[in-house]
Design a protein that fits this description.
The chain has one domain. It is built from 4 helices and 11 strands, in the order E-H-E-E-H-E-H-E-E-E-E-E-E-E-H. It is an alpha+beta fold. The strands form 2 sheets. Strands 1, 2, 3, 4, 7, 8, 9, 10 and 11 form a 9-stranded antiparallel sheet that branches.
């Protein structure tokens, strides 16, 4: 007799959008809504001054915002969605003499009542391969009334701005069960 598999619980699709200016941030959100459906909520926009990692490619004075889609999704779609956001980044990139420079970095994520998982193309030992050259990372774990950071959680995901956004989105998720 075959083993019956348990269906995955739908989760909120979120995007972390890092942009070189306000216009790129707005364009990114418009494109995300076109690809993935209406956006339900957005965090406050904040200055991304936690690291200089992206400045060589994208410049200084970067802005970041998290957005949440209206429709919940099957979490098994994360790799396909990350592939689509990579293509969107390419379409929005600035062409230089021999390369493309991103104007936006868009990382999709899965927000559940238990956690936040983000997709990335960067390997690290704590990330799980979900497709060729794509990885998923458990970024935050809900415990004791908050989304708690792990040893590798980026500093901006530990901020009150994002905590407020994630907790509001969690309340919405619980009400829409």
């Amino acid at each position: 007799m075959p083993i019956e598999l348990q269906a995955a619980t739908p989760v909120a699709l979120v995007f972390a959008v890092l942009a070189d200016c306000e216009q790129t941030l707005a364009t990114s959100k418009e494109q995300l809504a076109q690809y993935f459906g209406p956006l339900r909520a957005a965090s406050e926009v904040y200055a991304f001054d936690y690291t200089s990692y992206y400045q060589g490619e994208m410049g200084a004075n970067l802005q970041k915002q998290l957005v949440c889609c209206t429709e919940r999704i099957d979490p098994s779609k994360l790799a396909a969605i990350k592939t689509q956001t990579i293509e969107l980044e390419r379409q929005m990139a600035r062409a230089t003499e021999d390369t493309l420079q991103r104007r936006a970095n868009i990382d999709p994520g899965l927000l559940s009542i238990e956690s936040l998982v983000l997709a990335t193309s960067k390997y690290s030992g704590h990330r799980i391969c979900i497709a060729p050259q794509l990885y998923a990372e458990l970024t935050l774990l809900y415990q004791k009334g908050r989304y708690q950071p792990l040893a590798w959680t980026y500093l901006d995901y530990q901020s009150e701005t994002l905590q407020d956004f994630l907790l509001e989105s969690r309340t919405w998720l619980m009400a829409s069960r």
